[in-house]
Each structure stands twice: as C-alpha cells, then as structure tokens.
Amino acid sequence: MLIFQSDFLAEDLGSGEIDGMDRQKLLWKLISGSKNIRFAEAIAVAESFGFKLDRVSGSHHILVHPEIPELINLQNVKGKAKPYQVKQLLKIVEKYNLHLEDQK
Questions:
Q1: What CATH architecture is 6-95?
Q2: What Rg do the C-alpha atoms of the chain give, in angstroms?
Q3: Tens-place pLDDT, residues 61-91
Q4: Which of 26, 46, 77, 87 could be joined to 51 by an S-S link, Cβ 3.0–4.6 Å?
C-alpha cells in the first residue's frame, strides 16, 4: 500500500462532492486500496492532481499532466475503474510528489 504525506490528505480535493461523497473521503477510498472505485471518481481524483483528459481511444481515457512525462490511462468498465490503473495513478502521484490543486 502506498504511503502519502499528510499534506495530501489535509487539502480539499477541489470542486465539492461526487454523488454525495466528499473528495477527501474519496481520496482515502483510493489510498485504502478499495477495488470498488467508480470511473468518475478516479477521473475526479486525477483531475484534482492536475491531470487533464488528452484523448480517448476506445475505452482508454488518456490523461496528461503539464509537468510530468508519464501518461495516465483509465478505462471505464461498466462504470468502474480498473484497480490496477487506480494504483498506477497513485504511484505516479507519489513518484512526482504531486499536490492537490486548490479549489477554484
């Protein structure tokens, strides 16, 4: 399991709630290793760390970050994100020490 600096968790993830779940709880859900992550939740967390949708190729949603060379690939499979792709997202966040963007 990935260990994140406490400042990642102390900040607000952005623009409110996703289907009644606040974004800080959502980040905890991803970090805890839950295999029941909705695709929209994974996208919201990625965007909160500064990733933007670059392109869609079939079921592959490719997200890029302006400050890092690696891509994020997330697939929507019956409304869920693939667990290994969520783990890849979290590893990239940790590897590049990305911080949550301030709420606008």
A1: 2-Layer Sandwich (3.30)
A2: 13
A3: 999 999 999 999 999 999 999 999 999 999 9
A4: 46
Contact predicate 50/67, CB 8 Å: yes
* Distance (Å, whole) CA 69 – CA 33: 25
DSSP 38: B
Residue position matching structure tokens 């697939």:
75
Percent share of the chain, pLDDT over 70: 76
Alpha-carbon dihedral 104, 85, 80, 19, rounded to 10 degrees = -20
Q: Domain locations in the chain?
A: 6-95
Alpha helices, DSSP H, located in the chain: 6-10, 23-31, 39-48, 83-95
pTM score of the predicted model: 0.77
Supply 85's token pair: 């792709």
